[in-house]
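In this supplementary section we document a worked example of the pipeline. Step one takes a protein sequence of length 96 as its only input; no multiple sequence alignment statistics are reported here. Step two produces a three-dimensional model, which step three serialises into structure tokens for compact storage. The input and output of this example are shown verbatim.
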Amino acid sequence: MYQLLTELLTEFVQTDWAKQMCTYCNINPTAYGTIRGMFESVRLVDGKLVVKLNRSFEQRSDKLLDKLVKHLRGKLPVQRLAYMSGSPPTTRTYII
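The serialised model returned by step three reads:
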């Protein structure tokens, strides 16, 4: 399951849309197309995908996570995505 998750996240961060998001959020060009460039952490916890975006992406988190959920839907045997944001600390849950 971890290999599938890594493949799906790699596909997502290498899309043209994700690269445009990196440009918009002023990310270092060497981080474009990498999982670490977009996500601070990604974990599977109790059958749920828990993600934390790098701080630069927090301002656009709604749009980014909506796209991510659509990308993962039907491809990953997980039904929920939990997004943990930095300040103030909050968690939002998305249905995959």
